[in-house]
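Weekly modeling sync, notes
Attendees: S.R. (lead), two postdocs, one rotation student

Agenda item 3: backlog of single-chain predictions. S.R. asked that every request posted to the team notebook include the full sequence so nobody has to chase files. The rotation student volunteered to paste the first one in as an example of the format we agreed on. Action items at the bottom.

Example entry:
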Amino acid sequence: MMDSVTGLITAASGGGAQADEGVEEGGGVRRRVPHIEMKLVPLEEGSEVTLNSDITAMVHRRKAAVYLTLIGLLIFCTAFLLGYVAFRGMCHLCVDEGDLIPLNDAAGVDPPPEGAVLYMSELRAMLKKYLREERIESTLRRVSRASHPPGSSEGNALAREILQNLQNLGMDHTWTDSHYATLQFPSRTQQNTLWLVDSEGAELEEILLDSEGYCAYSATGTATGGVVYVNYGRRQDFEDLRALGVSLNGSIAVARVGGAVSFAEKVWLAQEAGHVGVLIYPDPADVPQDPRRLGLHSNAVISEHVHLGSGDPFTPGFPSFNHTQFPSTQSSGLPIIPAQPISANVASKLLSQLSGAGCPRGWQGRLPYVQCVLGPGFTGPGGRRVKMAVYNTMKPVLLNNIFASIEGTIEPDHYIIIGAQRDSWGPGAVKSGVGTALLMELARTFSNMVENGFHPRRSLLFVSWDGGDFGNVGATEWLEGYLTMLHLKAVAYFSLDQAILGDDNLSVYTSPLLADLIEGAIKQVEHPKHTGQSILSLVQRQGSWRNIVKPLYLNSGAYSFTAFGGVPAMQLHFNEDARSYPFVNTHLDSVGRLQELLQGRLGSVGRAVAELVGLMALKLSHDHILPLDVTCYSSSAQQLSTTLNQHTAQLQSRGLSAQWVFSARGDFSRAAKNLHEAIRNSDVQDERLARLYNTRIMRVEYYFLSQYVSVVETPFRHVFHGRGDHTLSALADHLSLLRSDPKMFDEARFRRQLALFTWTLQGAANALSGDVWNIDNPL
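Predicted structure, as returned to the notebook:
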C-alpha cells in the first residue's frame, strides 16, 4: 500500500510520471489495469535552487494531507462499526416487534459464521423455519394408536421410544426420573354396580354400567339413599338446594359434567353437603350426544379422578421415590364417599322417576323424557332408593418421567421447563397425544437451532410426565422431590396438555407474571384458521388481548407448578367452545375424530401452539432480564384493600382493623415498583447485576406460598391461586358474611385468616426489596 501511495504522490508532484494501462490475465478474464511509469529528468544547468526546495515542500505537504485523510477515515470507520455493534446488542430491549411477518422455507435461515451472535429477530425466523406440521401429526398418530396407562406394557414401550428419540436429538443431557406411586384401577374381580332397591334394601333392578368407566381415588364400598339432582355440583348449586329446603343428608347426588368444576370438586362439595355418594353424567346440553356428528353416544361415560389435589395421595407433600421410607399418610383431598361416572341413558332412567320440588331456573338439561325435578324421592311405590357399589383397587405402579435438556451458556442453572402428559386410559389423542407430539417437535426444533448457532442464555428442559390421568402424579412427585430448590432454578413452566380442542379461539391459563409474554407471541403467529392474519389481530376484534388470559384451574397440567411449587406456569388451549370436543377422558378420544373436528387442520393448529410456546420460551432463554411482570400482584392486593374498606364499619364494631394488611400491600407495591425502576435505570449488560435482578424476579411466586400452613395438610399454599383458609378467596368469602349472614361470621377464624395473608404478603414485600437495608417495613 505504501508503494502505491508513494507512486501517487510522485506522479502528482509533476516529476515526469506518465499513466498508462496494462492488461492483466487471470482466471480466464482479461482486464485493463492502470499503472504509473516514472521517468527521471535531470536538472538543467542554471536552474534556480529554490525550485527544488519548493517542490520538496509541496511533496511533504501533500504526503501529510494524505496521511491525515487516511487516519481520519480509519477513525471514522472504527467508530461507526463500534456504534453499530453496540446498538445491535441493545436493540432487543427497545425495538418494536411489529405485526405478523410471514416466513416460508424459501426465505431460508443460513447458519451464521462461527462465533457470530444471533439476535432475537433471527432466532424467531429460525424457530419458524424448523417447525414442521407433518412431524406433529405423524407423532400424534404414533402415540395415540392404543390405550397406554401407567405401568402397562404399552405405556412402558412408549416411554422407551420417547427416551430414545430424545437421545437421538443430541441433547446435552437425557435421563429418567422414577417414582413408585399408588394408583387406583377398576377391580378385575368385581364390577362396579348400580341398583334400584326397596325400602328394606332388597335389590329390585340392576342398572348396567360401563365396565371401563370409573373415578380414580373414589372411596370404595356401598352407599344407599334417595337421589337428588344437583345440577353441576357447584357450591352455589348446593346453596340453592338448601335454600329450597331439599333434604341432602344421606342421599346420592346426580351431577352434570362441566360447569367449570372438576369431578374432584363436585365430589368434595357433595360430601360437605351430606351426600353419601355421587353419580356424574354428560348431559346433552353440555356434551353433544350424536357420535356421527362429533358427539358421544348416549351410553358413553366420562372418567376422571376425584382426588382434590395432585400427586400420590398416600405421600402428600413427600416424593414417592423408591428409596424413601415415609410413613403411610392419606391426603386430606381423598373423598370418603364413593363416586362413579354414568351415561346419559342411566341418568335419564334415574332422573325421570324423581319426585319433589321443581328445579331452579337454568337447571334444565336436555335428557330425553326428563322433567327437571330435584328429588330425593321416587314416583311410584314408596321407599325406593338407589344403591351404588364401587370396588376399585389400589396398586403401586412404577412411574417414569423422561427428561432432556439443552444447557444454557450464561445461566445454565436456570431452567425454562416445557412438559406434557404421556399416559392415557384410552387412545388419548387430545388428553396426551397432542401434548407429547408438540413436546417432541419443540425439542427437535430447539436442538436444530443449537446446531445452527443458537446459544440459549438459560437452559431448556423438556419433560414427558407419567401418571397424568390420576392428577398429574408424575409431575407433582418430581415437584415434591425438588421443592426446596425449584424456586432457585425454575424460571417458568409451560404445559402442552390438551392444547388442541378446536381451531378457533385461544385461551391462556397462566400465572400473572407470564401474562405479558402472550401479547408479543400472538402478534408474531399466524392464526391457523385465518391465513395471513395474526392471532392478535383476530383477538382484538373481540376487545383487549387480555380477555383470553384466565387464571389457572385445579385440573390443569400447570396448576401444581404455581399453587404448590411456586413456579410461574402457563397452559394454552385452542378451542371452539365448551361443546367442541366431548371425547376427552373417554375411549373415543382418537386422532380421526380430532382431525374431523378440525377439518384437516390438525397440523397447522399444532404448529401455531408450538410456535406460541416456542416464542415465549425463546424470549425467556434469550433476554438479559427476565420479562416477568413483578407488579402484577399489586392490583390483586389492592382489590382486597377495597373490599376491606367497604366493611370498615362492621370490622370496627368488632374491634378489628385492616391497617396491617394495608401496610403490607403498600410495601409490596413499592418494592415491585422500585425493582422495576432499578432495572430500567441499570446496565442490563452487566452479567452480575442481571443475575441479581433475575434471582429476585423468578422467586415472586414462591414468596406467595404461605409459610404458615402445612404442605402435607394444605399442599396448595399459594395465597392467590391455592386452596384453603389461608387464601385471598377464602378471606373474601368469609368477609362477605358480614353482610349476607352476620351470624355465620367467625371472628377468631377471620383474625387468623387476615394474619396469615398479611404476613405472607409482608414477607413477599421484604423478599422483593432485596437486601435487608432496603426493606421498607414500618413495623
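Discussion: group reviewed the output briefly. Residues 1-56, 84-108 have pLDDT under 50 and may be disordered.
Action items: rotation student to repeat for the remaining queue; S.R. to check formatting next week.
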